[in-house]
Design brief:
The chain is an alpha+beta fold.
């Protein structure tokens, strides 16, 4: 009978063999994954390139021509980075507008194609009825198309400067615009059409000579649409939206300008003549200081200042723990903006038919 000698068994060699096989298997697996990932990346590359070409053809048929000097797609393996050099967008309807950009950069992850980051910083030129030169230190857009509830977009700009021919120079420290739009499948939690605009440190042209100065500290407007509007390609689209009960819900209106603090909210719709109607509740702070400014600049006289101060004192609410303020309901109807039965401003008529006629020319 042969005696088993454990000393003859090379355990170390056996372990090395298993380890080498394991490393070899992992290496082959990684190579296969890399090959599959490369094929996937190239397929997306071709899809993106083809989609840009198809988008340009479709928009050209709609009267929007897009040209550029070069298109580059890179970023392998973890990004898709699209660079479009010197794009020019020409809009032919309703009026001829030309938008010239130095560079457009967009990027997204291969595993998240619906979340797109777009960089538009640089000097932009708009040519049309008015010539506009716009430059920003940062100008970025984020678009999220992935949710079935709808899509979202966020536009953010920093240190924007614009010069408009016959208008003057306008600048802003920050501008943020956020929009929501419902998806094709309507559910309980579907996003409602919404826009939110925030502007900080807005400087308007000095030639305007505004009594409270040419710098607006903060402006914000947030609004929601009740009833999703269809494509407003003609006059009937607007009528259908109105007849379905379409309204604009202004949930936030803020203005911080000099001593003035304004906050408001309201609801607007269209009447039978397609003119805006609605109500707006506005809260004012600092109106007495505005009277002092107007008096100091000889915009109003002493008698007017005294009468206005007395009227403001009668309307001012002085709640405990709150800044003295005036809260008034305003009404817009028949092109008249009024407070109770007192009409103090006529609103210009909106000529919708002319707008749509120009858009279809």
């Amino acid at each position: 009978m042969t005696e088993l000698n454990f000393k003859d068994i090379n355990l170390l060699g056996s372990k090395r063999t298993i380890w080498h096989r394991l490393v070899g298997f992992i290496g082959i697996l990684l190579i296969l994954i890399l090959i599959l990932w490369s094929v996937y990346w190239l397929l997306i590359y071709q899809t993106v390139s083809r989609s840009i070409d198809e988008w340009m053809v479709e928009n050209k048929q709609r009267g929007v021509a897009v040209k550029f000097t070069s298109l580059d797609i890179s970023g392998y393996p973890l990004w898709f980075k699209v660079k479009i050099k010197k794009p020019v967008v020409r809009l032919k309807k309703p009026r001829v507008w030309v938008w010239r950009l130095p560079l457009v950069k967009a990027k997204f992850r291969p595993w998240n194609l619906s979340n797109i980051f777009i960089d538009l910083e640089g000097l932009h030129h708009f040519e049309g009825a008015k010539s506009i030169a716009l430059q920003a230190r940062k100008l970025k857009t984020t678009i999220d198309l992935g949710s079935p509830r709808g899509w979202r977009a966020r536009f953010a700009g920093e240190d924007l400067n614009a010069e408009v021919k016959t208008f003057g120079k306008v600048a802003a420290k920050n501008i943020v615009v956020e929009t929501d739009w419902p998806g094709q499948i309507i559910t309980v939690d579907t996003l409602a059409p919404r826009i939110d605009v925030i502007v900080n440190s807005l400087q308007v042209p000095i030639d305007w000579a505004l009594p409270l100065g040419n710098q607006v500290a903060t402006f914000r407007l947030e609004a929601h649409l009740k009833e999703e509007p269809g494509p407003f390609r003609d006059f009937n689209g607007l009528i259908q939206w109105r007849d379905k009960g379409g309204t604009v819900e202004v949930t936030r209106l803020n203005l911080d300008h000099g001593p003035l603090r304004l906050n408001g909210e309201g609801t607007f719709a269209l009447d039978h003549n397609l003119q805006p109607v609605g109500t707006l509740t506005v809260r004012f702070e600092g109106l007495s200081k505005i009277v002092d400014v107007l008096l100091r600049k000889n915009i109003i006289g002493v008698g007017q200042a005294t009468a206005t101060t007395l009227m403001l004192a009668a309307l001012t609410e002085r709640s405990v723990g709150q800044v003295p303020h005036i809260k008034v309901p305003l009404t817009l109807q028949d092109q008249q903006l009024s407070f109770q039965s007192f009409s103090f401003m006529k609103i210009p008529k909106v000529t919708w038919p002319n707008f749509f006629t120009r858009a279809q020319e």
